[in-house]
Amino acid sequence: MSDPRDLTDRAHAPKPVPKPGILDIHAYVPGKAKSDGVETPIKLSANENILGVSPKARAAFAEAADLLHMYPDSRTTILRDAIASTFRLEPERLIFGCGSDEVFQLLNQAFLEPGDNIVQGEYGFAAYAIGAHACQAQVKLAREPGYRIDVDEILKVVDERTRLVFLANPGNPTGTWIAFSEIERLHAALPPSVVLVLDAAYGEFVLDDRFSDGLDFARGSDNVVVTHTFSKLYGLAALRLGWGYAPLAIAEAVDRIRLPFNTSIPGQLAGVAALGDQDFQDRSIAHVEQWRPWLTQQLGGLGLEIVGPSATNFLLIGFSSQPGKTAADADAFLSARGLLTRRVLNYGLPNHLRITIGLEEHNRAVVAALTDFVGA
Ligand SMILES: Cc1ncc(COP(=O)(O)O)c(C=O)c1O
Q1: Where are the domains of the chain?
Q2: What is the whole-number distance in angstroms between the Cα of residue 123 and the centre of ligand 1?
Q3: What is the CATH number of domain 55-276?
Q4: Inter-axis angle of helices 55-63 and 278-300, to 10 degrees?
Q5: Number of the ligand 1 atom closest to the C-alpha atom of 229
Q6: Structure confidence by residue, pLDDT tens digits, 312-369
Q7: Which of 103, 324, 353, 373 is deepest in the core (most CB within 10 A)?
Q8: Separation of CA 15 and ligand 1 centre (Å)
Q9: How confident is the model over 118-134, as pLDDT tens digits?
Q10: Domain 24-51+279-375, what architecture?
């Protein structure tokens, strides 16, 4: 038997082992960006802004080229002030991150001890659970009947070890949403020690009066955090920029553990410009409003299940389980035509595909391809 303290005995020395649970985590699966044999595929797999980026944000990004040798402002002050004034929020209550993904991770890190849990809908966005498992916490899933968040189902699974409830409204990958009155009902029934995280990544796309991203509500609350991203409506996914509006005590806790420079100079400058480009935001929303009903109607007309109604820039589509007609088959069929969609197996939806609402020619190509697929 070799002595484990004998560091020269490399053959028998113990290897580094990640802490328990880490290797059970399923790594995040991003939307496909390539298809074998197709030179320029159309990426409809990641719900990016199909109109691209605001020209003003692009110009601000280009200006940042002169500043690449410098560290960014660690407080993200220019963007903090722009968001605070646009949405009438207290600047010191804002949290910034490398995408809203990082904001979720920071919240998990700040609140979860091993054995605690988070609660999310069964189809909840994958990043919440990854961060929770990294903290050796459990993830409790609440049923989503009809692919929709159900407040009573969430309350059924909340227990004394629940520290955070994550709720994307509208949801990804479902695209469905619930009225804010339901969220108020959830909040009233949750223990005040539980942090309610309202993820509004797609909130700007919902135009119904019964919807709210929760910023107004969060203003007067001690346990509500609302998150937003620049990756969707603002078309800045590449710059990884997200933010949260939290009670001051939570913002201050998160500030202690974040990386010192977690937003970049190009991100900060482009973020401010994108926020100020109302025309680009309006055009992006109008485009989705124009094409989502058309795509829903056309694909529904093929006998496919369209989950919804979707209030987002994507659709979730259900396929048959008949061999040759499944979501995997459809995904391969569309990929071969250069149309990249997103499989959602990791959300417990093996027979669905998620498709971003494309430009007119993309949408027509999707309908033509799926018409051939269904008829084949
Ligand atoms: C529901 C939801 N929340 C948050 C995010 C993360 O956005 P980002 O990290 O790009 O800000 C996404 C990205 O797809 C999402 O779908």
Answers
A1: 24-51+279-375, 55-276
A2: 14
A3: 3.40.640.10
A4: 130
A5: 11
A6: 999 999 999 999 999 999 999 999 999 999 999 989 999 999 999 999 999 999 999 9
A7: 103
A8: 35
A9: 999 999 999 999 999 99
A10: Alpha-Beta Complex (3.90)
